[in-house]
Automatic annotation (TrEMBL):
<protein>
    <recommendedName>
        <fullName>Peptide deformylase</fullName>
        <ecNumber>3.5.1.88</ecNumber>
    </recommendedName>
</protein>
<keyword id="KW-0408">Iron</keyword>
<keyword id="KW-0479">Metal-binding</keyword>
<dbReference type="InterPro" id="IPR036821">
    <property type="entry name" value="Peptide_deformylase_sf"/>
</dbReference>
<feature type="binding site">
    <location>
        <position position="129"/>
    </location>
    <ligand>
        <name>Fe cation</name>
    </ligand>
</feature>
<dbReference type="InterPro" id="IPR023635">
    <property type="entry name" value="Peptide_deformylase"/>
</dbReference>
<feature type="binding site">
    <location>
        <position position="175"/>
    </location>
    <ligand>
        <name>Fe cation</name>
    </ligand>
</feature>
<dbReference type="Pfam" id="PF01327">
    <property type="entry name" value="Pep_deformylase"/>
</dbReference>
<keyword id="KW-0378">Hydrolase</keyword>
<comment type="similarity">
    <text>Belongs to the polypeptide deformylase family.</text>
</comment>
<comment type="function">
    <text>Removes the formyl group from the N-terminal Met of newly synthesized proteins. Requires at least a dipeptide for an efficient rate of reaction. N-terminal L-methionine is a prerequisite for activity but the enzyme has broad specificity at other positions.</text>
</comment>
<keyword id="KW-0648">Protein biosynthesis</keyword>
<feature type="active site">
    <location>
        <position position="172"/>
    </location>
</feature>
<feature type="binding site">
    <location>
        <position position="171"/>
    </location>
    <ligand>
        <name>Fe cation</name>
    </ligand>
</feature>
<dbReference type="GO" id="GO:0042586">
    <property type="term" value="F:peptide deformylase activity"/>
</dbReference>
């Protein structure tokens, strides 16, 4: 006999999205340990119609704002589709902006995104995830990437991102491939949010690397 979860997962995606949207307020965010976060999401190919897609995107954006976060992928709310949203007002001090290349990013919808590295350089910074609440770890990522995707209206996106926006693009696209940031992280750097606030709230992780005993990319 099929379990409740198996019955839910066998229903059409449109029905599952409608059920999610039937409740008011932010969508529930799936935490690490749920298999949906470890599966490759389905390419979007009209599984939900334009009207439902618009409502779903609006709910993803509202959920991202409420968390708060700067990106959210559909699997993080239990929907295994290759859709993500990003937005970053970048309310950070100037020294952080300069060190991390964190500049404001407008709201974007990424449908079926894929990225590739541009150049050999990598940057390492502490990173967190809404599906791994309470923790952060240092992740070395490509400093610049080329993103190819569609937007919510099916228009092609082909754009280069650098600095913190490149990190957001990589993080959210990885979610669609069943990958969490911890898979790339330097585990000796793993720190609670409290430790981050009390010890490692620097523009770069250099001091944390010395104290915790891990290497940063050259």
């Amino acid at each position: 006999m099929a379990s409740e979860r198996e019955r839910t997962e066998s229903r059409p995606l449109s029905d599952r999205v409608e059920e999610l949207l039937a409740h008011e307020g932010p969508l529930p965010i799936v935490a690490a340990g749920d298999p949906v976060l470890r599966r490759t999401a389905e390419p979007f190919d009209g599984q939900i119609d334009a009207g439902l897609l618009a409502r779903f995107v609006a709910a993803l954006r509202a959920t991202m704002h409420a968390a708060p976060g700067v990106g959210l992928a559909a699997p993080q709310v239990g929907v295994p589709l290759r859709i993500a949203v990003i937005e970053d007002p970048a309310p950070v001090p100037e020294e952080v902006r300069l060190a991390r290349g964190r500049v404001p990013q407008p709201f974007r919808v990424l449908v079926n995104p894929a990225y590739e590295a541009v150049g050999p350089y990598r940057d390492a910074f502490f990173e967190g995830c809404l599906s791994v609440p309470g923790w952060q770890a240092v992740v070395a990522r490509h400093a610049k990437v080329r993103l190819r995707a569609l937007d919510e209206r099916g228009r092609a996106v082909d754009e280069e991102f650098s600095g913190w926006p490149a990190r957001i693009v990589q993080h959210e696209t990885d979610h669609l491939n069943g990958t969490l940031y911890l898979d790339h992280a330097e585990l000796r750097s793993l720190s609670s949010n409290q430790a981050m606030a009390e010890r490692w709230n620097d523009p770069t992780p250099a001091r944390a690397a010395r104290a915790l005993g891990f290497l940063l990319p050259d």
